[in-house]
């Protein structure tokens, strides 16, 4: 299986915030942003693996900045690390100023997707080699985040989480 780069999975989705997608403060509803990020992450995971992919876990979401109605929102997704069948997808969310066109980072999230066959069984995905400094930083932290997610899901014993233990010794 050929080795791929994060750039090969890069997915950019730009869309407006409509009134029906907002909360009582007229800002984008959190669940709507989660759905947009899930769609972008799913496309990135599919581009990396060229397989059917399913969301296994949402590892981290930061709603740092409210996104007002009428905003132009861009969600950028890239695979940050590939394991055996799972892929970590990093998402950056930007809003664009109407007059200047300047983009401001609004939110960020990390999802895990798993590639599966037609019966839903996990299948292997290509390896990933990071290229830029940011891609390398995200790649290096991904195993720690995978172990944390598995421990929180009760799928790994804390004693087996070597990367997490290494943080404290
Ligand atoms: C995701 C799914 C395929 C995992 O199946 P499984 O039987 O747990 O399979 P495995 O234990 O072999 O795990 C497969 C991979 O997922 C990873 N994984 C499973 N749960 C995880 C979690 N909570 N966090 C991070 N990674 C996880 C495993 O570590 C493994 O990774 P690896 O192969 O790269 O080492 C299965 O749980 C599933 O189909 N879930 C439903 C998915 C879905 O419908 N999503 C949409 C929600 S509406």
From TrEMBL:
Coiled coil: none annotated. The lineage of its organism: Bacteria, Pseudomonadati, Bacteroidota, Flavobacteriia, Flavobacteriales. Transmembrane segments: none annotated. Keywords: Hydrolase. It holds the Pfam family 4HBT. One of its GO terms (cellular component) is cytosol. GO terms for molecular function: long-chain fatty acyl-CoA hydrolase activity. One of its GO terms (biological process) is fatty acid catabolic process. InterPro entries: Cytosol_ACT (IPR040170), HOTDOG_ACOT (IPR033120), HotDog_dom_sf (IPR029069), Thioestr_dom (IPR006683). Belongs to the acyl coenzyme A hydrolase family. This is Acyl-CoA hydrolase. The keyword Mitochondrion does not apply.
């Amino acid at each position: 299986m050929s080795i791929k780069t994060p750039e090969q999975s890069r997915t950019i989705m730009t869309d407006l915030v409509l009134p029906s997608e907002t909360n009582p403060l007229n800002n984008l509803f959190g669940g709507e942003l989660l759905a947009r990020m899930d769609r972008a992450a799913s496309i990135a995971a599919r581009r990396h693996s060229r397989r059917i992919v399913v969301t296994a876990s949402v590892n981290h979401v930061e709603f740092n900045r409210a996104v007002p109605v009428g905003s132009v929102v861009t969600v950028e997704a890239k695979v940050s690390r590939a394991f055996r069948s799972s892929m970590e997808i990093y998402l950056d969310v930007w809003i664009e100023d109407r007059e200047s066109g300047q983009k401001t980072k609004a939110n960020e999230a990390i999802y895990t997707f798993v590639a599966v066959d037609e019966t839903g069984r996990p299948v292997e995905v290509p390896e990933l080699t990071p290229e830029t400094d940011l891609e390398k930083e995200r790649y290096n932290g991904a195993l720690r985040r995978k172990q944390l997610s598995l421990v929180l899901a009760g799928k790994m014993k804390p004693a087996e989480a070597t990367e997490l233990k290494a943080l404290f010794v």
